[in-house]
Write a structure and sequence with these properties.
Elements: E1 8-13, H1 21-31, E2 35-40, H2 50-57, H3 75-82, E3 85-91, H4 93-100, H5 107-114, E4 119-123, H6 127-131, H7 133-144, E5 148-149, E6 153-156, E7 162-166, H8 170-180, E8 190-195, E9 200-201, E10 207-208, H9 215-226, E11 230-235, E12 247-250, H10 254-262, E13 270-273, E14 280-282, E15 301-303, H11 307-312, E16 319-326, H12 330-341, E17 345-350, E18 362-368, E19 373-380, H13 381-397
Parallel strand pairs: 1-2, 1-3, 3-4, 4-5, 8-11, 8-13, 11-12, 13-16, 16-17
Antiparallel strand pairs: 6-7, 9-10, 14-15, 17-18, 18-19
Bound molecules: cytidine-5'-monophosphate.
């Protein structure tokens, strides 16, 4: 059974009827070998006695922000540093709002703000409060900040309502904690990903670009981060929010994309070129808007650098993965690209009447290496991204052509 042996877990308890489940959660965390420090808000103490949690955890419950008996009167920093993980269960609507607003008005909120450990919240509240757009906005903010939200479950509530807002059961929370602590396929690696289109300026208002939405590249970035990698996402202009917990470098042109990629390419273990980089750019970009005086104009285009090929040709090169989108003979052309650019793996977008990946949430991918060919089939871009990352991790850790 996965264990939490010797993990330092700060269990935050806020005011809500589900606080009674926190006693069971404390006991189960202890059973899994964790060291548990309970921190309670004042409202939580109206629902469950600190003495119960002290007896179960074997540690005095902490509840005061300016505690003269704590180290240098700064108990929140001491607890924040001690924590390997912070779990707030139950997390009330009010506490979620304060956390989303970056408040530090009580000990638990201050610890959450000060810690660099992962923060997990198990919300619990009346279904109406959960559904309110203010709460949903706060949850979205916290997710974007990298906070993990577990639940809530749906069902009958203590107030008699039925709907979403029940705190997950202690067993479900433990299951998340034990599994998320396990080693991941790309732990300790740095993965750089390019995504989206590029924009090649003709003048300040016009430019050359393409239909790439960035969805595939962003899904690959999210999947790599979920697999434990430190991810740098270099993205051309898209309408998407970058996945949480990654380093994001927005760029416009191919030349800017190349410069952003080269910034830390030496530290990169895996490079995945998903961007639809424009092959050509205007030979010169005008500083002011071109007037429509002439009946016809000629635009001279020059070749853009091939970012993927440059990365693959480096002396100490990362495991290098490209994407290919072709309408005719995609597999044959992809094999040629794999060879010519010196790649370890290429993912082929299958474009046909049944599958046009541009802007869609679905795609069909075939992976090709020197030695094999795997059809990942048609699926959502996020499911395909997970499969792609798992294949890359497998090959990166095993013998590959680098
Ligand atoms: O040669 P082609 O454009 O078909 O190759 C596609 C692959 O090369 C993609 O992985 C794309 O991100 C990458 N590429 C690049 N720089 C370019 C052109 C393509 O990185 N200038």
């Amino acid at each position: 059974m996965p264990s939490l042996a010797d993990q330092h877990i700060v269990l935050g308890i806020t005011g809500g009827i589900a606080a009674y489940k926190s006693a069971e959660l404390t006991r189960r965390l202890m059973d899994h070998g964790a060291q548990v420090q309970v921190v309670m808000t004042d409202a939580a103490k109206a629902f469950i006695a600190p003495l119960t949690l002290q007896a179960l955890s074997g540690r005095a419950v902490r509840d005061t922000l300016l505690d003269p008996s704590a180290e240098s009167g700064m108990g929140h920093i001491e607890i924040a540093r001690w924590a390997d993980r912070l779990v707030v269960a139950p997390a009330s609507a009010d506490f979620i709002a304060r956390l989303a607003g970056g408040m530090a008005s009580d000990l638990l909120a201050a610890v959450c703000l000060a810690t660099s450990a992962p923060v997990v919240l198990a919300p619990a509240m009346n279904q109406g409060m959960w559904r309110k757009s203010a709460t949903q906005r706060n949850i979205a903010t916290l997710k974007a900040d990298g906070v993990t939200i577990l639940g809530p479950a749906s069902g009958e509530q203590a107030c008699g309502d039925v709907g979403p807002g029940r705190m997950l059961e202690p067993g479900e929370i433990i299951s998340h904690l034990t599994h998320s602590g396990q080693a991941k396929a790309l732990d300790g690696t740095h993965v750089t990903i390019t995504a989206g289109p590029t924009w090649e300026a003709i003048d300040p208002v016009r430019g050359l670009s393409n239909h790439s939405s960035g969805k595939m590249g962003y899904a690959v970035a999210a999947a790599a981060a979920a697999a434990g990698a430190a991810v740098t996402l270099v993205s051309g202009p898209t309408a998407l929010d970058p996945p949480p917990g990654i380093q994001y470098r927005p760029v416009r042109s191919a030349e800017e994309m190349l410069a952003a990629v080269e910034q830390d390419i030496e530290a990169c273990d895996v490079f995945i070129g998903v961007a639809a980089v424009a092959d050509y750019r205007p030979a010169q970009s005008e500083n002011s808007k071109i007037k429509k005086n002439a009946e016809s104009v000629t635009l001279e285009l020059v070749r853009n650098p091939d970012i993927l090929a440059r990365v693959a040709q480096q002396q100490k090169r990362p495991f290098t993965v490209g994407f290919a989108a072709e309408t005719d003979q995609p597999i044959a052309y992809a094999r040629e690209k794999l060879h010519n650019k010196g790649l370890d793996l290429i993912a082929v977008n299958q474009i046909d009447e049944a599958n046009n990946p541009f802007g869609s949430d679905q795609n069909r991918l075939v992976l090709i290496s020197k030695n094999d060919e795997i059809d990942l089939g048609r699926d959502s871009k996020s499911a395909l991204a997970e499969q792609l990352i798992s294949e890359i991790a497998h090959r990166y850790h095993g013998p590959h052509s680098a």
